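This part of the workshop introduces the protein records we will be handling. A record pairs a protein's sequence with a compact description of its fold. As an example, a complete record with its sequence and its structure tokens follows.

_____
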Amino acid sequence: MRLRKGDSIIVIAGRHKGQKGQIIKIDHKNQRVMLDTIKCIKHVKPKQDQKQGEIKEIAKPIHVSNVAFIDKKSKDKPTRIGYKFDQKQKIRITRKSKTVI
């Protein structure tokens, strides 16, 4: 998985298509990412003895195939991420503008 925590991404498929956000958590085993701005489901918290019931929005992870990295140089368009080796170091680059991330 080429995405990292803190990357700016856009959702390219699904119910939240077109929404932008940053990655706050990555699950490498299940290939899912959690975004800071997208709240996927609403959970109804029932009334208890001392508290009133409420509706909470809970963030659910999105599959990696449904998101794309946002390239700042090419006017916030989605792009893929590649790698380049420079003096024995592996550097992430964007495929559209070839800029270093």
Observations:
- The chain has no helices and ten strands.
- The beta strands are 8-11, 20-27, 32-35, 41-45, 54-58, 62-63, 67-71, 77-79, 81-86, 89-94.
- The radius of gyration is 17 Å.
- The mean pLDDT is 88.
